[in-house]
Amino acid sequence: MKFIFLLCMFLLVSSSYSQQKKTKIIQDYYNQGLTAYKEKNYPKFLECFIKLDSLKNNNINIMYNLACAYSLNHEKDDAIKYLKKYISISADENIKKDNDFSYIKNSVEFKELIKKIKVLNKPINTSRTAFVIEEKDLHPESIAYDETTGIFYLGSIHKRKIIAIDENGHTKIFVPEKQDGLLAVNGIKINSNKRLLWTACTAIPQMIGYDKSLKGLNAVFKYGLDSKKLLKKYFAPSDSNRHYFGDLAINKNGDVYITDSYYPAIYLIKNNSSELELFYENNDLGSLQGLDFSNDGEELFFADYSSGIYRLNINTKKLAYLIEPKDCTTKGIDGLYFYNNSLIAIQNGVHPNRVTRYFLNSKLGSITSYKILENANPNFNEPTLGVIVKNNLYYIANSQWDSYNKDGSIFPMDKLEKIVILKTKLSE
Fold first, then answer.
1. What is the pTM of this model?
2. Which CATH architecture has domain 6-120?
3. 119-146: per-residue pLDDT in tens?
4. Where does CATH 1.25.40.10 sit in the chain?
5. 9: pLDDT strictly greater than 50
6. 217 to each of 2, 41, 154, 350, how far by Cα in Å?
7. Which of 313, 246, 237 has the alpha carbon at shortest distance from 275?
């Protein structure tokens, strides 16, 4: 049974009345389900979690508890069904120790699931180390590449700065700590042709110099690549919604699109515009993460951390969910990159963490197959974002998001790791 902070997974960050009402309903069913479980009223327990699943479909913790509920009610087929969905996201070897599955543990199907868990935990290590950064408390989230100079750029969450890395791994400061009011640096993208660096930033307790006066502050910073000077700040809307500018993408026209991981929206800064505008919003979405364009620039792919990958047509704003094969999952994606009619995803919301390539059909409307490129790498400590350079994916292996105390202070240096940038070949 897993009643571990389920409400954290349920809460929707929009402060709209309808979302608050939905959250209240979810909380009520959760409390009723927990009470029923403790009282061993298993039919009621199952009833509550079926309703929760209808309200928050494909939630990993609901999947697990539904599997428990079906097993406790001696409904083997449905218990196995939800366990299959669960282990595609979390290959949890402790499942075999959970007494809630006593009814199904001796079944052939359950034993096959245990074998599948072992397979899913097997390391697939094709990446090699590209760079090692000695600055342990950097806490990088993103990496970008300038095609003109061959320089990489690394953004720091904790240090509120951006560094440049040459081909030999030597580092220089691009933006010093807190200069220009720089916040925690999330996504970075570079427009080499226009000699611009764009970064999506937010104020969070994990960054140095944080205080309550900065709470809720989000902005996109626009820098000149050659001058290293700040050219413009674009702030998040001043409204009642919480915001978290997480990642961004640039199309061929130089327009910049930004995902909001708190309020379910995508923002747009048109080329040479002085304004940030709302491009798309959808309250049925959860936490928007990485995004990238198809080769023709007509389709914008983005990841919703809790539900999977979506395709948004730039002209019609028609949204479509990319249907995935039954034996894989597109949940828990942070970084997402379009490459040769496929999508490369960095999944830090699944266990074990992995890098996956999803192959698309000719119309880019569905996933036909997938390949795990990297799985259970010993360097992984929450891999985050990356960049594709000449058929290679460079990505941050160990962001170390979990290396903070409750008050936002970072762990001592002896408990931190050197920063590892990995490189994996996508094709010859």
1. 0.91
2. Alpha Horseshoe (1.25)
3. 999 999 999 999 999 999 999 999 999 9
4. 6-120
5. no
6. 35, 46, 21, 29
7. 237
